[in-house]
Fold these 2 entries.
Entry 1:
Amino acid sequence: MKSHAFVRENITVIMRSTAAHEHVVLPKFSNYVYFQFVPTLVYRDNYPRNKEIRWHFVLMNFAHVAAGISYTYYIFVRFCMPVFRNFNHEHVNLKTFVKSIFDCILPGSLNLLVVFYALLHAWMNAFAEMLRFADRMFYRDWWNSTTFGQYYRTWNVVVHDWLYTYIYSDMYQLCGSRFRGVAVFVTFVLSAVVHEYILCCLLRIFYPVMFVLFAGFGVWMLFFTQAKSSRGWNIFMWVGLFLGQGIFLCLYSTEYYARLNCPPTSANKFLDLIIPRSWNCYVIQPVLDGTGVLV
């Protein structure tokens, strides 16, 4: 994303200078290196800078990141592993599956808030302080959002600015105002693909739950709630986030442990990779009558 931003910003300047037969001024290599570490995805030759580094502020934020990672590990060990590590060793039906989703709402919601604070607040502020980067608008008050569009714009300002600057704006110019929905849809699909790719690399499984929730349900909720403004819709947004986190954590945990406990779905390695094992890995436990005879 940073490489695309660097090329996208400078290729425009180079093309304009070449067309006007002017001297092409290339960016300094030091600007490129600084951009690779600064907590922003939109390239500029110069950024607002602070005069000094508050090292105690840096250490405090890194300590918060470490605490967030430790607490996230505790959440998974305490709430998720006992529920899903015996997958395929116990009978699974619709009732237990729905119960597992509701069991995951609390740890999933806690994980959402902890990751938000550790990554978008503590981690970003630590690097911004070390690099004397003065623009600290990494997020806005997404918790007050009454529409999902407002939530998407304020939850992660760093990624939103990149998507708006380099994807949505370009698609809007190509499609025109009459097809603004196409630009929005393409932006969401690309964002969903990137998020799904990151999860595939982290978990080493392909299970496009994030893509479906983001590019499917998320786009629908974007248009469904775009004209809402009352506080009741803020409650609706939180309920949707809580339920979505429960589904997200339950399905990914199920597939992760299915990959550990269940046999391959196909002899073909590629088919086994893309076909979820949790879909056809159910063991029906034997049922005995009162005399101990198999029914």
Entry 2:
Amino acid sequence: MAVKQGGSPDPEANLQLGALIKAAKANSVPIDNINRAIKRATEKDAGDFTESTFEAYGHGGASMIINVLSDNANRCTADVKSTVNKNGGKMAESGSVMFMYDLKGKVEVPTVIDEEELMMAAIDADVDDMELIEGEEEGTSIVYTDPKETGAMFEAIKAMGLAEGSKMSLSHVSKAPVECTEEDFEKNMVIIDALEELDDVDSVEHNMSN
């Protein structure tokens, strides 16, 4: 999409593409994958991909934000709605789920970070907003920041010598996480797994704390 919008497959001439390539490399995306994506975007028959978001309710008070990237909006909408409905979920009106989340910059680091060291690195990188939490896997960390400061936060991580294996992205973080029963959690994961199997679905975010 950046190739089409910027008008050139050359990252030096297309600043938007250059920034995306830099982020992709920071996220350990293989260079072959990057080159293939650029090649597909420059082909005459390449589709115009657009990003969009769907909102849904699961079981036991769970909610979901479904992020998609598709070249066929009608197919994508039908697939997402069908997948949610047939697995016991319910599609939500636009905005009825989103307001329960904050959009934040997210840096995932494959090691435990010392909070004081991180704070000093963040200050040096001119990052004002920072929150450090334990990662989903033992021995890992997640740093949340203002979306506009995500790149600067990643530079702070790099300055600490922790760039290898670290990843940055934007993430919707629940303002009020919900702890579901084990049964409801398993039902919700069926919905999420089925959605993530769809070609157009990029990611599914949720408010479950367990």
